[in-house]
Amino acid sequence: MTKPGFTDIFGRLLEQVRDGYRPEPFLGYSNTRFYTDSEWFEKERSALFKNKPILVGHLSMLSKPGDVFTHDHLGIPIMVVKGKDENIRAFLNVCRHRGVRLVNTDETSNKTSFVCPYHNWVYNLQGDLTHIPLHDESFPTIDPACHNLKELPLGLCEGLIFVCPDPAGSVDMDQHLGMLKADFARFGVTDHVFFRQSTRRLKTNWKLLVEAFQDSYHVKRLHKKTVAPGFLDAVARSERSGDHILAVVARNEFPEAIDLPPEQWDLRHHASCAMYLFPNVEVVVHPDYISYLAFFPIAVDETVVVHTCFIEEAPTNEKAQAHWERAFDIIENGVFGPEDYFVCEQAQIGMASGANTHFTMGAHEYGIGQFHQILTDHVGKFDHQSPAQLQSIDAPNRAHRS
Ligand code: FES
Ligand SMILES: [Fe+2]
Asked: Whose CA is nearest to atom 3 of ligand 1?
């Protein structure tokens, strides 16, 4: 499997534009049961969300020793903490006595230790059980060392924090990210700082949300009043890089790069770079900030979306603060919410009507086909039915019109 980076793809898109742009030929079919079948949904959840590295945050969310944030969207309570030794660790946010949750704040908080509210067992920031009230008379025989918090495998890459939700699992960042590490470095992900996060619960299958970001076809239409004026119409290229997909979408300035040597290509000025990060994240590199959307399946038709925004430096005055508040509000409440999320929820409603047995995807939705290949590799093959079978399903409709 080749693992191209953004510059490779940018160069190949430039060649395509130089030669008179035509997208790669593609015609794909997606059975609507792929988004409505509960059994298949459970298969996806266990293959993709139980023991793979999942992006949960960024180092800038934990600036001081004792800073901790919680993460509950994988169906198990997780906390990520910065220790006194400055190391980052992830634990199940679960007391080892009778299972009560230890940290209960949504935002990052600061702790010197974790005290369970139920019977006050105390754990230090490294997860060691350090105090049991009435230990000698109540539990004279138990060894506290056998009741430390359950630690989860954790990996760091360019400031991003990945956690495997299975204590017996593992995280290998080099194997998981491959060439993406260089791309995260290129965009200075390590040096960005956390600015805002919004969480929404949407009535749509998680894959429809991923697919909305693999489709350059809709940009000029769905987003015509918002971001579309900055882009050429569906001039884009996406390529698989390991289990991830990198997409370069041409901005109006893209043709300026045709006569420039590669060292003068500006991936944030000439194009917009976006990345599907396996299994459930879309990273979007905006001209002056980076955001990522993490899609967590809750039910076959319900998804939690966590949108997190990072900027190059923390605002130092009110004007800068207001600028970034506005930028986040525009993308979250002006573009993603009323446009992308809205159509995904509508498509889910449309599927329930029975109007479509399948979706037909054209050349500008090529990235969706790549996403499906990746899912096939990890979950197994879904029977989308052949085009011939699908044509016979459509035949009565055509006969009716003639
Ligand atoms: S459940 Fe935590 S101390 Fe008892
Ligand atoms: Fe969109």
From this structure: 119
* pLDDT at 169 (0 to 100): 97
Ligand 1 within 6 A of CB of 100: yes
Query: For residue 399, with 0-12 CB atoms within 10 Å meaning exposed, 13-18 middle and 19 or more buried, which class applies?
Result: exposed
CB 119 near ligand 1, within 6 Å: yes
Residue of higher predicted confidence among 178 and 33? 33
Provide the angle, in degrees to the nearest 10, between the axes of the packed helices 38-48 and 366-379. 80
Residue keyed to tokens 């040597």? 261
Point out the ligand 1 atom lying closest to the alpha carbon of residue 96. 2
Rounded to the nearest angstrom, the gap between the alpha carbon of residue 238 and the centroid of all alpha carbons in its chain is 17
Spatial distance between the Cα atoms of 194 and 181, rounded to a whole number of angstroms: 19
Asked if residue 272 lies in contact with residue 283, where contact means CB atoms within 8 angstroms, the answer is: no
Residue in 164, 192, 203, 198 with CA at minimum distance from that of residue 74: 164
Query: Do 376 and 34 form a contact (C-beta atoms < 8 A)?
Result: no
Ligand 1 pocket residue status of 98, Cβ below 6 Å: yes
Residues 224-249 have pLDDT tens digits of 999 999 999 999 999 999 999 999 99
Could you read off the pLDDT of 115-152 as tens digits, one per residue?
999 999 999 999 999 999 999 999 999 999 999 999 99
Residue 298 CB coordination number (10 Å): 15
Could you tell me which residues are beta bridge partners of residue 30? 359
Ligand 2: centre distance to CA 10 (Å): 20
Compute the distance from residue 157 Cα to the ligand 1 centre, in Å: 34
Q: Is residue 212 within 8 Å of 344, Cβ to Cβ?
A: yes
Tell me which amino acid residue 62 is: L
The answer to whether 115 and 104 have CB atoms below 8 angstroms apart is no
Say yes or no to pLDDT of 158 above 50: yes
**Residues 248, 10 contacting (CB under 8 angstroms):** yes
C-beta 101 within 6 A of ligand 1: no
Is 18's pLDDT higher than 60?
yes
Ligand 1 and 114: CB distance under 6 A? no
Helix (H) or strand (E) holding 296, with range, is strand 289-299
